TrEMBL record:
It comes from Rhodovibrio sodomensis. InterPro entries: Pyridox_Oxase_FMN-dep, Pyridox_Oxase_N, Split_barrel_FMN-bd. This is Pyridoxamine 5'-phosphate oxidase N-terminal domain-containing protein. Residues 31-151 form the Pyridoxamine 5'-phosphate oxidase N-terminal domain. SUPFAM superfamilies: FMN-binding split barrel (SSF50475).
Length: 185
């Protein structure tokens, strides 16, 4: 037997089929529960992949509802001020397929969304996302293909919201200290 999986058939031989409910819970649109989840979420992870296979996952945060559902088939994600690397946005230009994972503090379930994105720079749309006199430079408009609520197992196993699992921040050097060590900044 080989040490690595090389084919989908080998992979399927290793794992049982997903239960019917697991497959059925995937929707092709944002229902009222998904829209409410997005509305309450202050944090989303955006996954993208560029033409050369450059994969990126980027955390995005704001006040709850900073990402908006525009009907059942569209999500709007403002590109708030960041580090200007543009890894995710460059990937979207090259390959519009995206994946989003929404989290709500204290809720162990997550919402996963898959779709195709485009970068919108419309002044009118950007204005609707203005916060404290600042507008995003662009808004990611995601045409939704698949939506599903993901069970709580991973967050529960991680104890992500459990105060007992939190480390003392001093256990890890500050970002400034780590950057100084890594790049001399």
């Amino acid at each position: 037997m080989t040490e690595t999986i090389q084919t989908v058939d080998q992979l399927r031989a290793l794992y049982p089929e997903a239960k019917p409910m697991v497959r059925q819970k995937q929707l092709c649109a944002l229902d009222r529960h998904a829209r409410r989840f997005v509305e309450l979420s202050p944090f989303v992870v955006l996954g993208t992949c560029g033409a050369a296979g450059n994969v990126d996952t980027s955390p995005r945060g704001g006040t709850p509802g900073f990402v908006r559902a525009d009907g059942e088939q569209t999500l709007l994600l403002p590109d708030l001020a960041g580090n200007n690397r543009l890894d995710s946005l460059q990937n979207v230009v090259e390959c519009p397929a995206v994946s989003l994972v929404f989290l709500i503090p204290g809720v162990d379930e997550t919402l996963r969304v898959r779709g195709r994105a485009e970068i919108v720079v419309s002044e009118a749309l950007r204005q609707t996302f203005e916060v404290d006199g600042k507008r995003p430079r662009s808004v990611l408009r995601v045409a939704v293909d698949a939506v599903y609520l993901h069970c709580s197992k991973a967050l529960m196993q991680a104890g992500l919201w459990d105060p007992e699992t939190r480390i003392d921040r001093a256990t890890l050097p500050s970002l400034a200290e780590m950057l100084r060590d890594q790049i001399g900044a």
